[in-house]
Structure formats: C-alpha cells, structure tokens
Amino acid sequence: MRKHLIAPSLLAADFTRLAEEIDLVNRSEADWLHYDVMDGRFVPNISFGLVILEAVRKMSTKPIDVHLMIVEPEKYVEAFRKAGADVITVHAEACPHLHRTIHQIKESGAKAGVALNPHTPVNILENVIEHIDLVCVMSVNPGFGGQKFIYQTLPKTRQLKEMIISSNSQALIEIDGGVGLHNAESLLQAGADVLVAGNSVFGAKDPEATIRQLKAFEAVFDY
Ligand code: DX5
Ligand code: ZN
Question: For residue 141, which atom of ligand 1 is closest to its CA?
Fold first, then answer.
C-alpha cells in the first residue's frame, strides 16, 4: 500500500518571505511543492510563471508539481520543464488534443498530470487514463486559494479510483482546493493519493506541524 503524498501550495505562502517559506517546506515532511500558474484567461486570476519557477527550483529540495491553469498549455510544456517542473498538469478543458499533450509532457521528461474542473466528469479520461501519471481533481473552481471544498469531490474521487483500478492505470489521484485536517481522512478513504494544501498549511500557526498531521493520517483506500 503506498503512503499518500502532501503537496503544500505555494500560492498561499507569504511572498515577502519566499525563501523562508520554501525552506519550511524543505524541512518538513512534505513530498512535493505545488506551484499554481494562472493566466487570467483560463481562470480569472494571474499568479506567477516561468522566472519565479526558476528561482523556486533553486531553493526547493522537493519535486515541483506545476499546475497549469492556462489556455494552450502545449505552448509552454518544454519551458516549464526547463524552468524546473517535475510534474506538469494541464486542464482537460484547455486541451482539445489531450492525448497529444500528455505525450508531449512525458517526452519533456516530466510526469504528466491532467486536472478536471468540478463540473468535468471523470469519464472524459477513459481513453487516456493508462497514459497519465496523475489526475488532479479540482475540489474548488480553480483561480483562487482559500475557497470552500466542494463535497461532490468525494464520490467523484471514488468513481475515478474505480476507473484507475479497472484500467490498470498507475495514475495518482491528487485533490486540489479547500483541503485540510477536517477532510483529509475522508479524501484518503475515497482514494486520494496526493493532497494539495495551501491555506490550511501556510495559514496555520505551525505549518510544519500541520504538514506532519496531514501526512500522519492512516486511512488507506481499501482495494
Ligand atoms: C486553486 C489552486 C490551488 C490552491 C489551493 O485554483 O489550484 O492549488 O492553491 O489552495 P487552498 O488549499 O487554500 O484551497
Ligand atoms: Zn493547484
């Protein structure tokens, strides 16, 4: 049984102390660092991009999990890989040629992730699931940190887990948005493998302890 992974989301960090915040993640039990790229087109907000990623790459000792909330992500796959991405996740809704984009990511040397907005059904992945390393189930509408978790994510995660098992896919299920100590256990029981946590970690009194607590949950999915 594989242990779940914790990926603190840098979007919720204090950017006036970016090096310290990354150091905190380096010291912690976190597995990945989640990096949200927003373009003001696919989502109504703009965050950070390639040059900041290059700096983050130099400071982070953890693999960087890049979540591209951008239109035409295929134009930037190689650039994000070069800037330091270990996992590159694109939105299914932004990719008319999803199969091609998944292979493009793998050829770049990164692990390939596909994200689904809350309204996007999991069956959109039926014909590509065996090629994907990670499915990011959005549990909020992407664009902002600190939003309320959408509970429909739980049955959706179970459904996706069934699809992954029946197709012999190795894809990890990542949950992104509104994740914290209050819902981590039910998400793991539903089949989650990676928990992204922004405000629940960086907004906590003791972020390192929160990461430890998120990591310590034992609820394992029953195959
Ligand atoms: C939302 C982003 C998330 C966000 C999560 O569009 O994709 O990764 O940073 O933040 P919290 O955990 O605060 O909801
Ligand atoms: Zn994200």
Answer: 6
